[in-house]
Design a protein that fits this description.
The chain has 4 helices and 4 strands; from the N terminus they run βααββαβα. By secondary structure, it is an alpha+beta fold. The chain has one domain: Alpha-Beta Plaits. The chain has a 4-stranded antiparallel β-sheet with strand order 2-3-1-4. β2 and β3 form a beta hairpin. The radius of gyration is 14 Å and the shape is elongated.
Length: 95
């Protein structure tokens, strides 16, 4: 499994949903898992993004599907970043 960082910004529509049903966040996590990915950690943050999620997925195609399907709803914009463990990064630099 590969690790990805998802930086999310919720739309006005998404904010309205969370205002009336905050547990919707946990329902979305289950939807992510239905696509073969797993939420490792999740944080609400202050600043230009509303949430930071650490997610494991089998491959880039799987996480792309998750990001596109969630984003297509119009309630969230997601920036998806592949995360490289430092040990692997150092190995690449030594080649």
């Amino acid at each position: 499994m590969s690790t990805y960082i998802l930086l999310s910004t919720i739309s006005a529509k998404g904010k309205k949903t969370l205002g009336t049903k905050p547990e919707r966040i946990l329902e979305v996590n289950k939807e992510i898992e239905a696509h073969g990915a797993k939420v490792i950690a999740q944080y609400a943050v202050l600043g230009p993004y509303d949430f930071v999620n650490i997610v494991e997925a089998p491959d880039n195609e799987s996480i792309t599907r998750v990001s596109m399907e969630l984003g297509a709803r119009g309630t969230i914009q997601i920036m998806t970043l592949p995360a490289i463990p430092i040990e692997d990064f150092i190995k690449v630099l030594k080649k």
